[in-house]
Amino acid sequence: MANDSKTWRCGKYELSFDRPRIMGVLNVTPDSFSDGGEYFDPDAAIEYGLAMLDAGADIIDVGGESTRPGFTPVNPDEEARRVLPVVRALAKEGAIVSIDTRHVAVAKAAVRCGASIVNDVTGFTDPKMVEFVKTSTCGVIVMHAGEVAAPARTHATVQLDTSAAAFVAEKAREAAAEAAREAEKPARRRRGKLLGEPKPEAKLPGGVVQPSLPFGDPEPATEPASEQETPAAEQAAAAETVAPAPEATEAASESNDRLAAMMRRSARREEAYVPTSQLRRFTLPDSAPIMRRVMGFLSDQARALIHAGVSRDRICIDPGPGFGKSANEDIVIQRETAKMASLGYPLMCAVSRKRFVGAVSGVTEAAERDAATFGVCLGAIQAGANIVRVHDAAGFAQFLNGYWAVAKPQPRRAFVAVGSNLGHRCDNIRAARDMIAEIPLTCVSNSSKIYESEPAYETRQDAFANAVIEIKTELAPLVLLDELMKIEAELGRDRSKKAKANGPRTIDLDLLWMDGETHGGKKLRLPHPLIGERDFVLVPLEDLMHDPARFFRYNGVEVKEPEDRVGHIVGELGRM
Question: Whole-prediction pTM value?
């Protein structure tokens, strides 16, 4: 997993999976099962989405229709009204936004507003949705929603009592039954069969009920009704046809929305489930038929998308925990994560706060299941899952950073820009370099020369000294950024509101780029959105790499020509 070679192309972004990616859940709905409509207001949703990005989320999954069991379907116009302002605002801040929808009209509008991923809970079974995504460049998430096992055959369970007392009682009942049969031998015969024989569900001597078993010979055909009874029977049948049973009426109404019907069936099945009502040899059902259905669907839908013209590296798969599945089935599917990962597509683990997580942890309230969610996600990550979809993005980012630091040695290359125009400028830059080298799990591998540059943006100030430091680090980008901010504070950088945004400073540290990282939000943007226009960054980078302009253009950054840049280099101030 530490060196997973899969990549996921999502519009202008490309996600690598040398590290698991976090998808934060943002429900812009009044009836979500986990947050109860807390972010139904667009402004609250935007603020929370940005907060998740600043806390460590890589992707924000925006949904405007709750798909909890028993949900009420939302029409596309209302769903679009809820989600589009949120998608637009987050995409403007550089976020990778996923639109969680099954309506093609909403998907189209969201992609136009900046969404990079379409997350379809119906698994792209709608030809119109397939037609749309094949003409776009967005990433797609194929989810399995539906029952994974054939309905169980309903019959009364035979309970065996092997005690000595029960054995004696059974023998007594058998003797009494034999005596009764002997007494009734002269009974009338019809078609060579004794009418006095006990039938299924009939009470035997001793009060024992013989259950109707699912095997054995079928019951004899019922005798045809008499002529006098036929009209009444036909009338009853006709009445039944005219006035259907309540179940039939409900099924007819549910057919208008297949996903809603399936989720309601799933809820009823979960509520009716009593672990002691069935005798099983094993704690979980056989995985083979379950995985055949799940993996078969995911594989078939992914191949159908590829045949339609969607490139393979745009496709992610999701087994859809909780969608039409019992707790036992969800556990089986999670235990088979490695098999699903072997299909070769990026794999999502979307178990956050689901009912089966509550079942295995004993936590009733959905909002309190985050710790158990993290445990299930960790198991999935170890088995090959690439993306985790969670409600508590901040908590999971901490959890993942702690685990990854000790379990997966993974130094990555990064560049930090250093500038100063107050005090002893070169000494400030050298002090910052030495302090960067002391950051945990980080080392300085190379440094550019120190250059003097014109001030940028705020031109009425002294010239700057600038350099770029190349490092290797095992820290997550946001954790590294916090360490750089601590160094700024220690060296006297004033970041208070009274300080000018681009005014004089003793030290300025900018995280420019990190290998394999794309990030958006208010706190950090990767790659740094202003690299391409800063001469005082691009020129020092030439000391560390060949043709930095070409390198960053390849990484999706617009790089301006030298004459169009700001903060031009005017001379050298010496080596680091």
Answer: 0.78
